[in-house]
Known about the structure:
The protein has helices at 15-23, 26-34, 40-60, 92-99, 129-134, 205-213, and strands at residues 6-11, 66-71, 84-90, 106-111, 141-151, 156-159, 162-166, 173-179, 186-191, 194-197, 226-231, 246-250, 254-259, 263-268, 275-279, 283-296. The two termini are 30 Å apart. It is globular. Strands 1, 2, 3, 4, 5, 6, 8, 9, 13 and 16 form a 10-stranded mixed beta sheet that branches. By secondary structure, it is of the alpha+beta class.
Amino acid sequence: MSLAPRAVLVHRTTEYEELVAHHGTHGQAAFFLSSRGRDIEEVAERHRRTRRALAEVTSAVPLTWRQARVERGDLDRFLFAPEDVVVVVGQDGLVANVAKYLDGQPVIGIDTDPGRNPGVLVRHRPTDAAVLLGSAGATGVDELTMVEAVADDTQRLVALNEIYLGTAGHQTARYRLGLEDDGGVVEAQASSGVLVGTGTGATGWLRSLWQERGARQTLPSPTEDRLLWFVREAWPSPATGTSLVAGELTASAALTLTVESDRLIAFGDGIETDALELTWGQTVRVGACARRLRLVG
């Protein structure tokens, strides 16, 4: 007999909870904020909206289903199952946080703070949860492209928005950069890092680089099998070049980077604490991931 679906509610600790945990009491947190010209009521109201949304989504789960809750900080220790329906209750970034731990499970994004969140990935209101869960996310699913980095020692990193390769402090990184399908052309570079992003990431960090460069390439859509990449602040010298500083990758193409520094890292979606550690001489390949994030539209 197959298992009943499990609704996995993904959430994060609110700013209010973090403040109270740090300062000990509501009053101490309120005093801290007031000393800096802020009112704790604004933070507390967002906390209450989040808790109401969680309660509403929880009550919408069908009675025959199983349930689980996981906080953002525990995602790397949570085991998702094939029959799970993942409900992200929070901000757009929380969908990106959970994406790399999934393998085909449908994701429903619930916006807890409409008007404050862009709502690119958390597209629904808490009142929509019952209908969405009733269909188990089987209809209206967008297959969002993801990006992956695979090192020559089998380390692997997957991200929904973008992958950054460089130094942990965003200082000068030294490496050799090449495109697999570009006739073996490789260039030694010194820069503040390389960014490879998806169409979903085109609403964030990738877009800012694209605008700054006035790039000729059009930004990809979230479901398009195309990535854009940019080298940040490449430095010309007798030993380093600046001819390979931007481009696009089709589904079958990849960017390769060979480390020529003591230590470089690769991290995804802004989470530096979950990074690949790369040392001198290692090579990492970055391209589109075969997995997709199945986001309920």
